[in-house]
Amino acid sequence: MFVVPPAAPLPGHLQETPSPCPLPRGERVLRSACPRPREESVLRWACHRPRRERVRRAALGVIGFAVLCLASAAAAIAEEKAPATRFFEMRTYTANDGKMADLHKRFREHTNRLFEKHGMTLVAYWTPVDGPEAANTLVYVLAYPSREAREKSWKDFQADPEWQAAYKASHADGPLVKKVVSQFLSPTDYSPIK
């Protein structure tokens, strides 16, 4: 065992052995000189606490670093998967006289569900509050992942037998809509909806 006299100061990286170590009292010992009892686990733990503490701290550091790496990787993946913006379409329907209630009923009972079935996102529906258009105008906005997705969704929607049956049934007493205006939109950089 390597013993250093009590009066000689030890360098900062060499610490005194903890008091539970089975060495004579008052002697300062280098860690490498600390005996390693194999039989008594309590003494082994007490004697080698500094080394175990270093291992524990290193393990916590590695775990913390791994968690930080995983969190940043998850954020990067989420950012890559999030679409930059969607493709929007605003549609304005002008209903024939006396057909507005039937148009609302068709949207409520058939059209909205079929839009969603074919990949269209329902954003909002409005009717004017004032003016002559208030009695016969419906304005709504749909969103799509892209313009190509919009074309496919409408093609599939119009070919859907359920839509064809609902459309035909709603026209039994004449067409509901006399005019449709469609306008494609893209959100501005400050728009809360993208």
Features:
alpha+beta; 19% strand; Alpha-Beta Plaits; four-stranded antiparallel sheet; 2 domains; 194 residues; two-stranded antiparallel ribbon
Spatial strand sequence of the major β-sheet: 4-5-3-6
User: What is the domain tally?
Assistant: 2
Q: What is the N-to-C order of secondary-structure elements (H for helix, E for strand)?
A: EEHHEHEEHHE
Predict the CATH topology of the largest domain: Alpha-Beta Plaits
Structural class, from helix and strand content? alpha+beta
Q: Can you tell me the overall shape?
A: elongated
CATH class assignment of the largest domain: Alpha Beta
Rg calc: 38 Å
Detail the poorly predicted runs: none
Main sheet characteristics: 4 strands, antiparallel
Tell me how many strands there are.
6
Structural commentary:
This protein has two domains: 10-80, no CATH class; 87-185, Alpha-Beta Plaits, CATH 3.30.70. The protein starts with a strand and ends in a 9-residue tail after the last strand. It is 42% helix and 19% strand. The protein has helices at 41-47, 49-81, 100-117, 147-159, 161-170; strands at residues 3-4, 28-29, 87-95, 121-126, 137-144, 177-185. The radius of gyration is 38 Å and the shape is elongated. It is an alpha+beta fold and 194 residues long. It contains five helices and six strands; from the N terminus they run E-E-H-H-E-H-E-E-H-H-E. The strands form two sheets. The chain has a four-stranded antiparallel beta sheet. It has a two-stranded antiparallel sheet with strand order 1-2.
